[in-house]
Design a protein that fits this description.
Shape: elongated
Structural class: alpha/beta
Radius of gyration: 19 Å
Distance between the termini: 17 Å
Amino acid sequence: MTETSIPRVDEPLDEEDTAALAVNGDTEADETEADDDTEADDTDTAAVASGREKKAAGEGELFRQSEIAADYVEGLLDILDYDGDIDELVAGGRPVVEVVGARLQNLVGQRGATLEALQELTRLAIFRQTGTPSRLLLDVGGYRATRRKELAAVAKNAVEKVKEYGEPVRLEAMSAFERKCVHDVVNAMSGVASESEGVEPNRRIVVRPAD
């Protein structure tokens, strides 16, 4: 079985909090999540209207979560005396907070470890105010977008090796966010499949020929 390492992000080095994980459940839910939305029968106008109302309410709650998260992150930045612009939004059916500014590398940390911890603390802050577990996605300085591109290259390289040699390829241990990025790329390709093995913090992906 081939071992493939993941390149590091070229940033100064200056994703989990146990209590937060206990509140939010297994982070693997972020890795293997699927779209649970169902479409109403076109012949049932009342059902369609009801579904739209529920969806709107859901989006409103998600945006509220992003606002709570933005306030919490802003408080952290004030305490740390960091400057940054904070945007709150809803994307992909989940609340998102993005922090943009200079000198924010310390909030990302090695391989995004600090960012993952901050994300879990922010999710916990949302839970304390709403009583509802959150799937908030926190990003700092565009780290996650950059990391997605790197992981896409890693996933494609693993797929090429699997197709060439016909043997499984084990990737380096990753966070739930990183694993999901790889799963998304592999699942979009034919002839291969991916699965996770191990336990945190050493959980990793195995790319193998499809059955």
